Amino acid sequence: MQTQLCAMLALQDKMNTKVHPQWREQQFPWYRAIWTESAELLDHFGWKWWKKQTPDIPQIQLELVDIWHFGMSIYLQSSTDYEGIAKTLVSQWNAPVDAGDFRGVIEALVADVLATHTLSLPLFCEAMRQVNLSFDDLYRQYIGKNVLNFFRQDFGYQQGTYIKVWHGKEDNVHLAEILSSEDAHAGDFQSRVYAALEARYPR
């Protein structure tokens, strides 16, 4: 787990640096990204008592992966000691929390992030547990989304020239299809995912 956490932290630092070389000095409000993503996540789970709603578990898991990007950015804001951060995260990973059902967990997470401007790892892990998102799943989906984010940047995301829908499917859907056929523990996993995205991207 610690090795995989170090890998994710390093990739997140690299992604943030690609977007803005002095990202630490910019003091971006990562906490704000977390609570807005949490609201989107709750929409996918369903909270309207006046209509029938069915939780969209794959989309909920994807939103949790997005939140993880922002949480790691907060952890990295004041340190580049990936191993030190990873050790702290491992020690907190299975800390018990009592926040009720999934909606309650997300509301507790949002209340905490608004109060502290950081991501509560125990609450985040409890949210993962309640929607059956394992650590291995988090790792695989995070690495995949990180590769997609690099791909987007390389193909004009900031300039507004990136094409998000290819052959009738959003890039996230293409990514999910690619991830389902790749071994996340392979040494060349990232390069294989990038190459597969490039092969599908319209010219």
Could you describe the 3D structure shown?
This protein is an all-alpha fold and 203 residues long. The protein folds into two domains: 1-133, Type II deoxyuridine triphosphatase (all-alpha NTP pyrophosphatase fold, Orthogonal Bundle), CATH 1.10.4010; 136-203. Helix content is 67%, strand content 2%. It contains ten helices and two strands, in the order ααααααααββαα. It has helices spanning 2-19, 23-26, 30-45, 57-76, 82-92, 102-116, 121-130, 135-154, 171-179, 189-200; strands at residues 165-166, 169-170. The protein has a two-stranded antiparallel sheet with strand order 1-2. The longest helix has 20 residues, at 57-76. The termini are far apart.
Summary?
With 203 residues, the protein is mainly α.
List the helices and strands and how they pair.
Layout: H1 2-19, H2 23-26, H3 30-45, H4 57-76, H5 82-92, H6 102-116, H7 121-130, H8 135-154, E1 165-166, E2 169-170, H9 171-179, H10 189-200
Antiparallel strand pairs: 1-2
Essential attributes:
203 residues, mainly alpha, globular, all-alpha NTP pyrophosphatase fold
Average the pLDDT over all residues and give the rounded result: 92
| Portion in strands | under 5%
CATH architecture of the largest domain: Orthogonal Bundle
Question: From the alpha-carbon coordinates, what is the Rg to the nearest angstrom?
Answer: 17 Å
Ends: how far apart?
39 Å
